[in-house]
Amino acid sequence: MKRADPRRALPSVDAILRAGHPSDAERARFTRTARLVLARARAARASGDAATFAAETRAALSERERLTLRSVINATGVVLQTNLGRAPLSPRALAAIAAAAGAVSVEYDLVAGKRGERHGHAARLLADLASAEDAVVVNNNAAAVLLALAALASRKEVIVARGELVEIGGGFRIPDVLRRSGAKLVEVGTTNRTYARDYAGAINEKTGAILRVHASNFKITGFVARAEGRELAALAREHNVAFIHDLGSGTFLDTSRFGLGKELTVGEAIREGADVVTFSGDKLLGGPQAGIAVGDAERIAALRSHPLMRALRPDKLTIAALLATLATYRDGTAEKELPVWRMIAASPREIAARARSLAAALTAAGIPAASIEVRSTVGGGSLPEETQPSSAVAIGGAPATRLAQALRSADPPVIARIVEEQVALDLRSVLPEDDEVLARAIIGALAKGGADGPSRNQNGPRARTRRSV
Ligand SMILES: *Cc1c(COP(=O)(O)O)cnc(C)c1O
After folding, report:
1. What CATH number did the domain enclosing 399 receive?
2. Which protein residues touch ligand 1 with a CB less than 6 Å away?
3. Where is the domain boundary, 283, 310, 337?
């Protein structure tokens, strides 16, 4: 027996368009989406009238166009959360971006009235802050490392300790970058112990550079040894090869002042004798995504004039935000102005007081909440295994995964952490001026969360839970 062709039951694209009334601006993509919806229905042997398919098309279209890049509240307790955009910018940097958005003298010399140098703006400030001769800025630190290797060691050998052949994350592996730069990797030492004599034994006429890479996201402890930066610098100078130090995070402030371990500062790396020091703009520096190379004038000039430079150069908004960020270090106000340092410098007592007051506000709104003590981290490839005392607000009343999901759909979305199977909002990574927005976002999300929202436990007005989508 022959069944009726189910395709007969499907409306035409034209009929769906007539039922859906797309505007002129959305007509083309509505049509494309309608075809996709029809194809899906055909494959599933589904049927329906034009109005049903128009509604389905409309829903599919809004799902496609849902805003995915949104401002969120980072309550993870990880100050530099790579997935959440690392360093939040300071008001000064934001103002600088707005000011640079129009016509701006990015490559124009206002005194001479002719073409100027894109790289000059931040270079002087960076060189001063690092006590280095010169500096250059690119898109990110991965680009800075690539550029330094390509400019100083292409077709030459680069010596790296086995314990420093690391993967930073997001697939950034030092051996791969080295290969892409056109340099040849020469590994020395062992995973746990490498001495200056290992490097010395590997140097020959084909050597272009010695590369030191900061262990950003792991710690090797126990029976370990590594060559001093000074020894590597002396060795490099003696054989006239470059000593490149990839610091990763790169800081101008001493992290040990905040109860954290000591990270080598950019200035200290230069004083050790590195020819080129590279670091990120959006890690501990607290600025925009950028890669910075500071160092010896001749070496930096080689980076600047390399053909790759054009492909790696930063845009005017980045330069503006970076300049504004660097100015806070020059003025001695970085700790007060840059969100990253404000978060790191926040005292545990101050955070605890904020957590108690947030917990009280939530409890008053019918959400079971309590302040708890936690440990926060800096993250973003700096200070591995180091933690700071912090406080969080733990929320109960529903399963943690469900609560975390409800918070992600808050307005603005709130990204929480899970501590001992409880959803917790760690306030170290939240600025105090955002506490009120955070409280309102949580109350909004959990009060409308429906049957599984904790508000039901208290006063649970059905009318309120019906507000869910
Ligand atoms: C983070 C990091 C990088 C990559 O820096 P991006 O700015 O993310 O490109 C490179 N090297 C080290 C050691 C790092 O920690």
Report:
1. 3.90.1150.180
2. 140-142, 145, 168, 172, 213-214, 216, 246, 248-249, 280, 291, 381
3. 337
The predicted-structure confidence for 162-198, as pLDDT tens digits, reads as follows 999 988 877 789 999 999 999 999 999 999 999 999 9
Statement to judge: residues 272 and 359 lie in one domain: no
Backbone angles phi, psi at 389, to 5 degrees: -65, 135
* CB distance 47 to 41 below 8 Å: yes
- List C-alpha distances in Å: 239 to 199, 201, 273, 378: 11, 12, 14, 38
Q: Rounded to the nearest whole angstrom, what is the distance from the C-alpha of residue 80 to the centroid of ligand 1?
A: 13
pLDDT of residue 463: 31
Residue 358 token pair? 């947030």
- The Cα 315–Cα 310 span in angstroms is 11
Q: Mean of the pLDDT values across residues 385-401?
A: 95
- Whether residues 150 and 277 share a domain: the answer is yes
- The predicted model scores a pTM of 0.90
Same domain, 289 and 432: no
Whether residue 53 contacts residue 41, with contact meaning beta carbons closer than 8 Å, is answered with yes
